[in-house]
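Dear colleague,

Following up on yesterday's call, I've attached the two folding results inline so they're easy to grep. Please treat them as preliminary; we haven't cross-checked anything against experimental data yet. The first protein's sequence and structure tokens come first.
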Amino acid sequence: MKKTRVDVKKAVVMHRVKMATAWQGVKDEEAATRYERVAVVDADLPILENYWREGCAMVCQRLREWLGGEGIFHVDRDGCNTVLQMPDNWDDTQKGALRQRMEDYLTAMVLARWMATTWQERQGMYDEQARQALDDVEKILWSRKRRPACAFRVVAKNNDQTEEKEES
């Protein structure tokens, strides 16, 4: 087993949430006051902090199988720090994708909870995005390195059989 560390920075997720809520509020042409209701300001950060912690708890629940005996899942004021116990044949190249999808999940989850308060019609969209991102996290964790196939032997064997047929 090998240890794999994945860190998700809370500042990155909260910046993405702020950008998304501002964009959603500006794009709505029907309500002139929608921007003030939807866009996140610094005064809203304590509320979003609760949503962040809820999202981290959901990620921890889903990662439980990979935390193992020496795995670590720690949430602090800076972010979510994870050390996973992965099999030796786990594809290390997926580490960046894993971090990205964890960020995507946390962003969508915080947005879904925020939209439940400010704009209920948009909540379902973010709930679906969060569900898909968390499913993708699990798929990435199940990915494994493939053993290289020995195509040369198969091709050579097929060529021998072809030649034998032609000779007889």
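Below is the second protein, in the same order (sequence, then structure):
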Amino acid sequence: MTTPKVSIGMPVYNGEPFIREALDSLLAQTFTDFDLIISDNASTDGTEAICQEYAAKDKRIRYIRQTENRGATANFQFVLDEAVGEYFMWAAADDRWGELFVEENFNFLTQNFSYIGSISQSYTQSGEIGAVAGSTTISNPDKWDRVEKFLVNPASNARYYSLWRRSHLANLKLSRYDYVAGDWAIISELLKSGMINCIGKEIQFFKGAGISANPVRYFDSVRKNFLEFLFPFFFFSQYLLSSGFFVRKPYFTIKMIFLWNYGGFVPYWRQRLGTILWRVVKLSDVAAYVDHNVSDLAKSKQALKIYLNKWKNRFKIANRNALR
């Protein structure tokens, strides 16, 4: 059996609602010399039956079901470790690709050896395109300038799902980056060894249904200690300060660390606590409500109690919605 040129790794957990669409778009690729490794993280829905069905129809698919849920990071590492192709790409089970995606990016990499990864123009479900979705060419000659260009606007970081030269991923241990924005740290590391291309053709689409779309669910799922309640990008900040980047770009590093942590703190706590803690309830508002509804002290106390209970109930509803 010949070794495929490209290995595609698809980690999945409970992908029944969308995995058929993802598999169909991968199997429809014009480039056919690939194997597809699916690692099912002990799904509890119909994912296994769907994958077994597709594996029975296409010999390029290798389906492995984990005996227990190993966590997302370990599942991503597993499909990478199982890869045999000279080129590799992760494939999210809720994304889909145009039929030229693998072919176009494979051809580019075989002709441009200074590039270690290549992706195509990307879209998200919310309408993000190109740079906003995290698919842009980063080709600065200096490696630190490449990292800086990336960190100016990591965005949704679609480039994580580029087609890569697998040799550059060989020593990658994803467990080292299992924290908020760990994928940014991975791309930063990869950019030290080469450039990343964006073809600019509209042949890839991201659904945007991942956990990172919900700040509370995302931060809570990867948080390691209490400091991250105040500094959501704490470990990524540590990475930058110790990676050599800070020595070369000190002002930029400090500025971005502040902006990221502030930008993560605000949406997290707004959603976690609900809008009540982000509104200033002026005493004049309370007074106006009381004055409008009552005329004596006893009724004033009752009206104030009703007013405060109304806000208390709003808080409970907002916080309950934030936890969904």
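For the second protein, one point worth flagging: The first strand starts at residue 6 and ends at 12.

Best wishes,
A.L.
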